[in-house]
Amino acid sequence: DGEFAWGSVAKTIAREFARLGINDSGNVQDTSPEEEESMWPPNSNPGMLVGANSRSRAVKAREILGWEPQYHDLDVYIAEEVDRQYKGGKYNQ
Q: Where is this region: Disordered (predicted)?
């Protein structure tokens, strides 16, 4: 429907990583702002880029650009994309 929460996206990716054996648990860990800063390039302000508790909506994309979703289940799309990236060698090095 064009709306999602970043925390849900992170959980779906972690679950797919576990399914593929990339990680053990499939769990998402909370991180402190300091830990987040250490995982991203300097001065990128990850909290502003991807807030785990933020929601995103496609209202303007629909109204201005005429966008319509290709997938109606974001979890399905994420699973397919993680699988595609894995088979392409991005995660299985």
A: 23-50
Residue 34 lies in a domain: yes
Tally of structural domains, the chain: 1
- Asked if residue 14 lies in contact with residue 28, where contact means CB atoms within 8 angstroms, the answer is yes
16, 82 Cβ separation under 8 angstroms = yes
pTM exceeds 0.70, yes or no = no
Q: What are phi and psi of 51, to 5 degrees?
A: -80, 125
For the chain, helix (H) and strand (E) counts, in that order, are: 5, 2
Q: Which has the higher per-residue pLDDT, 78 or 58? A: 78
